[in-house]
């Protein structure tokens, strides 16, 4: 209701002792939105590429994700099969229409069944491609779309996420830069997921348990390129 | 929600006598403090980030009207709807309106303190809409017909055996002979039961940790993933957020994110930080078709420009209560409304009135631990003192306190009389308590000695010792 909107905004201005048309205030707000200053960025992630990858893997493992590093995109299907086998899972995954995934040699894994589209409640394992990873905290970043439907990240028991080594960055801010490059300033994909380890809860007597509502396991495949 | 803050003293007394609660509170005392300290120590920039986080929110609050306008424009540009609610009643009416338009029968809910603040669940139930809490802790307390006792660990007052009892009572479709000894089996059971609910729900309601003005995004930060299933599976997503949640940019959000989880649970980062912007796009195979944001004021605009403005920096991390000796002793329910602990002691009187919540700012030892850990550097003790002053000037203090202060004033103005009285009192108490050095009970001090001993005074008065030291120096 626009009445409520004007009433709330008018009350705020009165409390702050400000007038709506104050040009200096408007300029301050416009400037900050435009410049998006970075603030304090931790040194921790500011490393050369090799050390950054090491840190990303270490931080992800520290939050109970498992990490496999493979030499090239061609090795991803084999790694997916191997993961399913070691975890006694059926040879079946679901994935979206991501072009990078589609270009991988899945035919080399003839037993692996690949379903496509958004996840269903019964999916045990899914594969999605991240747009990047943040070494600072071992955080994956995934964006919504037909390439990588968001449900793939939350519904399965095992979520396998592929990320290119060259897409690993030191800090969250570098991810925002990249999103602005892809989508334009101030425009976002419908959903951006920052994922740091598998789902967990400590709601029963503050005991940490994995696999609350989201995946019980997060397996990250880091692809050298 | 029925407000019991006026009965804080009785609530606190009952809490101290509640053995199950005292057992559960042990988990707060032992768990959170060490984890936060470790996470903070592991990040050299942590203290600088606290300053940065504080400055960002101060800047936002000084320009709150303008950032909200910018945010609302962006939400609408991305195809979402923004609703402005002046108070709790407005917000409930708006949400029910959306439920009715969508003919919704069940709604799933992510964890949201704001929906507690507006008493949403009871209201929806009265209007034939069934709310289902999906955060494990929230689900447990919904089954128990209770309210959260902690802002990030809502069921921290409940023990495992109580959860088991509740699950057996409610999940009657499952084998009564099943083994629920282990916390993992309880978790799996909740996971399975709630899975179906996500798919059945017509609407998902979540709160927001941040609203980003630059992009029109709402952000939730969770560990379980329940908030995400709540907001991507149903056809409609409603975000309910209070006005001060807005931040300018993604960079500003990142600054505050870096202190949020570390202060709350000692994680570097919570598992899921999700940014949602508008409804799903034509090419999206999943996500909601409709996206609504309800912006709640409910007294906050009046806090701007007042001595309580800084409280609006709060990011609901819970560190202040995790470190509070009063919270450790009595738990969250004693505070009698939605927000417990030091942040509740400041915020509750602002939102529901000091005449209802006047006891809360007194529930403090002024030890200052809350302020020392608050990531947003909110001067909580100072603000509790402001409330005490207001309460006193409005004559809201109980007669005993006013009488006591009057008595103290009499002595303070007459130092000679004070010294004589002190010498007499200390002499008497130390003679009486000579044996053990403390009192397990004392006439007129039962309120103190019931739950702790009073040390017997040792030696002369402070002023006598001071005089002696100076002479010998
Ligand atoms: S007052 Fe500070 S410590 Fe307490 S919940 Fe708010 S931000 Fe956290």
TrEMBL record, chain A:
SUPFAM superfamilies: NagB/RpiA/CoA transferase-like. Residues 128-223 form the LUD domain. InterPro entries: FTHF_cligase-like_sf, LUD_dom, NagB/RpiA_transferase-like. Pfam families: LUD_dom. This is Lactate utilization protein. It comes from Stappia taiwanensis.
TrEMBL record, chain B:
GO terms for biological process: lactate metabolic process. One of its GO terms (molecular function) is metal ion binding. Keywords: 4Fe-4S, Iron, Iron-sulfur, Metal-binding. Residues 305-335 form the 4Fe-4S ferredoxin-type domain. The keyword Iron-sulfur applies. This is Iron-sulfur cluster-binding protein. It comes from Stappia taiwanensis.
């Amino acid at each position: 209701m626009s009445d409520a909107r004007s009433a709330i905004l008018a009350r705020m201005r009165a409390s702050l002792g400000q007038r709506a048309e104050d040009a200096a205030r408007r300029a301050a707000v416009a400037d900050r939105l435009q410049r998006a200053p970075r603030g304090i960025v931790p040194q921790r992630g500011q490393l050369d590429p090799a050390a950054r990858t090491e840190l990303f893997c270490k931080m992800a493992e520290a939050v109970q994700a498992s990490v496999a590093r493979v030499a090239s995109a061609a090795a991803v299907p084999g790694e997916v099969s191997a993961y399913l086998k070691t975890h006694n899972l059926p040879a079946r995954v679901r994935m979206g229409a991501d072009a990078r995934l589609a270009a991988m040699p899945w035919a080399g894994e003839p037993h692996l069944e690949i379903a496509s589209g958004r996840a269903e409640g019964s999916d045990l394992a899914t594969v999605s491609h991240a747009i990047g990873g943040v070494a600072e905290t071992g955080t994956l970043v995934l964006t919504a779309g037909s390439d990588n439907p968001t449900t793939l990240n939350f519904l399965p028991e095992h979520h396998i996420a592929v990320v290119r080594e060259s897409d690993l960055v030191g800090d969250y801010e570098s991810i925002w830069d990249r999103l602005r490059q892809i989508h334009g300033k101030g425009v976002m994909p419908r959903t951006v997921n920052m994922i740091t380890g598998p789902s967990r809860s400590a709601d029963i007597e503050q005991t940490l348990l994995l696999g609350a509502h989201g995946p019980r396991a997060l397996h990250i495949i880091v692809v050298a390129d | 929600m029925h407000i019991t803050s006026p009965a804080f003293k009785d609530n606190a007394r009952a809490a101290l006598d509640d053995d199950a609660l005292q057992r559960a509170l042990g988990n707060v005392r032992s768990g959170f403090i060490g984890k936060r300290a470790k996470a903070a120590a592991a990040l050299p920039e942590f203290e600088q980030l606290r300053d940065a986080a504080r400055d960002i929110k101060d800047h936002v609050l000084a320009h709150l009207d303008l950032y909200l306008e910018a945010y609302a424009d962006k939400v609408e540009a991305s195809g979402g709807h923004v609703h402005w609610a002046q108070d709790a009643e407005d917000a409930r009416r708006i949400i029910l309106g959306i439920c009715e338009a969508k003919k919704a029968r069940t709604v799933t809910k992510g964890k949201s303190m704001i929906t507690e603040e507006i008493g949403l669940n009871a209201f929806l139930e009265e209007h034939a809409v069934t709310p289902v809490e999906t955060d494990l802790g929230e689900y447990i307390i919904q089954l128990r017909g209770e309210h959260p006792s902690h802002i990030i660990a809502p069921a921290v007052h409940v023990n495992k055996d109580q959860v088991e009892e509740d699950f057996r009572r409610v999940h009657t479709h499952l084998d009564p002979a099943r083994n629920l000894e282990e916390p993992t089996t309880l978790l799996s059971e909740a996971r399975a039961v709630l899975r179906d609910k996500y798919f059945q729900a017509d609407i998902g309601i979540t709160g927001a940790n941040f609203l980003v003005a630059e992009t029109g995004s709402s952000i939730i930060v969770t560990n379980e993933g329940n908030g995400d299933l709540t907001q991507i599976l149903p056809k409609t997503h409603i975000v309910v957020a209070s006005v001060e949640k807005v931040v300018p940019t993604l960079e500003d959000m990142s600054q505050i994110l870096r202190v949020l989880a570390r202060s709350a649970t000692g994680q570097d980062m919570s598992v899921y930080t999700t940014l949602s912007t508008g409804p799903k796009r034509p090419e999206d195979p999943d996500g909601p078709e409709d996206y609504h944001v309800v912006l709640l004021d409910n007294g906050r605009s009046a806090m701007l420009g007042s001595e309580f403005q800084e409280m609006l920096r709060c990011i609901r991390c819970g560190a202040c209560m995790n470190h509070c000796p009063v919270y450790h002793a009595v738990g969250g329910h004693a505070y009698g409304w939605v927000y417990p602990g030091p942040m509740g002691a400041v915020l509750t009187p602002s939102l529901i009135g000091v005449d209802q919540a006047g006891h809360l700012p007194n529930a403090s030892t002024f030890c200052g631990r809350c302020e020392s850990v608050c990531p947003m550097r909110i001067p909580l003790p100072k603000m509790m003192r402001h409330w005490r002053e207001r309460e006193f000037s409005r004559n809201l203090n109980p007669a005993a306190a006013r009488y006591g202060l009057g008595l103290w004033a009499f002595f303070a103005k007459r130092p000679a009389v004070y010294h004589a009285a002190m010498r007499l009192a200390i002499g008497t108490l130390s003679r009486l308590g000579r044996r053990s050095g403390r009192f397990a009970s004392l006439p007129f001090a039962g309120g103190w000695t019931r739950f702790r001993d009073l040390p017997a005074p040792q030696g002369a008065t402070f002023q006598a010792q001071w005089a002696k030291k100076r002479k010998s120096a």
